[in-house]
Give the backbone structure.
Amino acid sequence: MTDLPKFSEPTRVVLDDIDRQIIARLHENARIPNVDLAREVGVSPSTCLARVRSLRERGVITRYTAEINPAALGFTLQALVSVRIRPGARHLMEQISDDLRREPEVAQLFFLGGSEDFLIHVRVRDSEHVRQFVLKNLSANPAVALTETNLVFEHHTAESAGLRAVL
């Protein structure tokens, strides 16, 4: 289908045990000093640095980030907003996705297969803030057929974040 967003498939990268150990340690603590990382995985610091560089170049490590507590910044409410795009507006899905990703309230954006097209995880100050987000960014868009907002009472990130199965 030519009217759907084009998301590239990553090439599967071959990893050895050292690579897997490095990824697991960096996943737990991306700020670990290279010398400590090298010691923990049992290689020299120069080998470890080369391995991490290779993992970045091969697209395994895409970025380093800090996990921020949104409540500490005044964003005390989280919501999941399901979005269905009108059938005649499917050619706009990539533009809608790009626009939504630029909104400061959007923590995560999922492009789905199924009855809904997008699932948007937003972090907002309060219920009025989520209402304004939906009205401004979704309900006002003629390409949007339907939205459904669910409030998040608790949010937990899995410790493994899905990596233990592959590591």
Observations:
- The mean pLDDT is 90.
